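INPUT
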Amino acid sequence: MKLDTLRGHLDALVLAVLEPGPLHGYAIISTLRTRSGGTLDLPTGTIYPALRRLERAEYVSSDWSIVGGRKRRTYELTAAGRRALASERDTWKAFSNIVGGVLGTD
Amino acid sequence: MKLDTLRGHLDALVLAVLEPGPLHGYAIISTLRTRSGGTLDLPTGTIYPALRRLERAEYVSSDWSIVGGRKRRTYELTAAGRRALASERDTWKAFSNIVGGVLGTD
DNA sequence: TCCTATGTGTAGAATGCCGATATGAAGCTC
DNA sequence: GAGCTTCATATCGGCATTCTACACATAGGA
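OUTPUT
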């Protein structure tokens, strides 16, 4: 499956995996890979720019730490991020209903 | 809803509305608008380049005609187009399951 | 006469995902 | 101790695709 397909929906996915609690970039990638049964394998060149974009939009905030001698940047949802996630869920529902309806895959 | 959201899925929608029978560009726009309850209102600058792309890929073929004094270019699915549509439906199912699953909107 | 609907089309800008590449530490195997 | 894999962050250029804005043209109703 062409992963370019998720263009425009990546932010929603990232916000969703951050909902239960903070994660760092690499963990976000593996969480998404696990949750999708291996199908969704985001390259780092996709996730890190996305996180910077989300941070600029103030949907997430980040903190540096050192774990096992490795530098980690951990991201956390802000209040605005939670609102954005709710809105993204609504958008997704509307979008998937429309596409599913037109394609006849309901 | 940002229509940019459908990036990567437009081809599937166009192929789907062409499935029952040939249509011209303008009719494709209004069909999609009707079927989406008005939400999907594609600009001509989106649909015409998309149709040329689909024709280059040989998923559709086109024929000119004159109806009511106006020139019309009517597009029809090819055999390859029907196969592509089937494949797009599979892609959509996989994609929407994954996104719906991660977002928790099932 | 003008506006709206019908109908096709292009050019340029913006968006944003991806591939390639770079850096570096930890830990394991041979 | 050399080399490999995993963990971890990051940038840059390329590229495909959608959107905005424009241009052109006919038919028909107000």
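end of record. The CA atoms of residues 11 and 79 of chain B lie 15 Å apart.
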